[in-house]
Amino acid sequence: MQNLLVMKFGGTSVGTAARIAASCALIRKEAAVRPVVAVVSAMSKITDLLLDTTRHAEAGDRPGVDRNLASLEARHIDTAKELLPESELPRVNEAIAALIADFRRIVGGMEMLAYRPPRAVDEAIAIGERLSAVLVSECLNSQGVAAEPVNAASVLVTDAVFNNASPIMDATRVKAGERLGPVLEKGVVPIVTGFNGATADGRPTTLGRGGSDFSASILAASLDATELWIWSDVDGIMTADPRLVPNAKILDEITYAEAAELAYAGAKVLHPRTLAPIAERGIPVWSKNSFAPEKPGTCIVSKLGEGNMGARAVTSMANVSLVSLEPANPAVSGVHVMARALDAMDRVNVEILALSSSSYRQSFCFLVRNDELTKTLEAIESALALEMAHGYVLEPEVDHNVGLLAVVGEGMRGFSGFAGRIFTAISRENINIIAIAQGSSELTISVVVRRDGLEKAVRAVHAECSL
Ligand code: ADP
Ligand code: ASP
Ligand code: MG
User: Fold this and answer.
1) Chain segment 190-200, per-residue pLDDT in tens
2) 21, 69, 197, 312: which could join 156 in a potential S-S bond, CB 3.0 to 4.6 Å?
3) pLDDT above 90 for 363
């Protein structure tokens, strides 16, 4: 399909009837001149609500489940009422009720088992996106634009890593062509659910929190789209999180590599894995504000124009912990301990955000997200159980009072002095630096600091690098 545009709308862009109407106006404008595929998130806070409901079900808390179901239903029924002509409501309300009944059925199973199987959680939480896809496509239809909700479970093929699945691109390309091609040929806009997919044998999966960005880029790559536009609630990718640094500036342009590093190191504006499928094909991505569509936004490209040198942005992550491991006696090889620990973490799919080791004591430490800490420790303790029982390796130590700060910029490569300036700026604020890591690409300098100094460190580094 020539000149295809994929547009992704985040939770705030479909968070109310007014926001859905505004997003539909953006779809309508583009769909008038070119083929469009829209990818939608659940309405803001709905995924949290659905997850919370599964936890109440697991705990056997029926009143908690019912309370959440009532607010889930009210949010969508009220939005439909505000958004759509009265004549359409009985049919749309029925569609909403059917999806909520599906959700109720899945959490009913969890209540009975007193357990939340990961694949059932994935099937359950994707219902947020399925509900918003119905509202968006009905709104477009009511404006005279032909649109159809599409459950990405029938399009996006993934592996079986429930809650954090990865796409299988070849299979997705085939399915996307089969499922979406005929819809586009008819001039209908597919409104595809973000966040979810299914294994080749049909088991439902999700791509991790914030995964709708990733869904959109997987689809853009699979359909050979000309562009991907990601609509959010900020004017583009900024030199820092505007909630931490009020004078953060919008970047006109940023490279795939820089944006990927920023997202990986915590910039919530993009899901960390968004750019991988798109960068290799060089498909341009725009990050834009659906609340202010006239603003140009940020363009993510392969190479920057002249003058975009030095550090580009600073980002941070607060919900992380530093785990240290150390052999108890010098006869034990630190490399061996490290290899066993890394292998154990790989098997449970833990992501290491930074890693640092010291030579003489053969100790090493690494940073993981707090929500992956329990499985990290369980995996390491089970892999090194014998060594620990016999006193060859010390128990892992966990430091919760830490945060990660990362400075990103292709222009820092090859220039000495950036690291020094960053450390000086942090020290000047009397914030303790605990560990330092620089990726071999020299694109990112990561610094682990005391948690209570993190925000201050971000502001100090932002000012120092004149971002
Ligand atoms: P959506 O629901 O549209 O996917 P998100 O809430 O996931 O939107 O991401 C947008 C938010 O990301 C912004 O509101 C902003 O607070 C946050 N953010 C963090 N770092 C940055 C950054 N460097 N540039 C822009 N926004 C950022
Ligand atoms: N709704 C999902 C979440 O809140 C996915 C997304 O919004 O990108 O994580
Ligand atoms: Mg997001």
Assistant:
1) 999 999 999 99
2) 197
3) no
**DSSP helix/strand/coil, 106:** helix
Class of the CATH domain delimited by 313-464:
alpha beta
Give the distance (Å) from ligand 2 centre to CA of residue 416.
39
Q: pTM above the 0.90 mark?
A: yes
- Kindly give the number of the ligand 1 atom that is closest to the alpha carbon of 287: 25
Please report, for the chain, the start and end positions of each structural domain, with discontinuous segments joined by +: 5-233, 313-464
Amino acid at 266: G
5-233 and 313-464 agree in CATH topology:
no
Task: Please tell me the distance between residue 271's alpha carbon and the centre of ligand 2 in angstroms.
Answer: 9
How many residues would you count in the chain? Answer: 467
Q: What CATH superfamily classification does 5-233 receive? A: Acetylglutamate kinase-like (3.40.1160.10)
* Cβ–ligand 1 contact at 242 (below 6 Å): yes
Q: Determine the Cα–Cα distance for residues 54 and 41; give it in Å rounded to an integer.
A: 19
Residue of the CA atom closest to atom 6 of ligand 2? 210
Contact 400, 321 (CB under 8 A): yes
The ligand 2 atom at the shortest distance from the C-alpha of residue 208 is 9
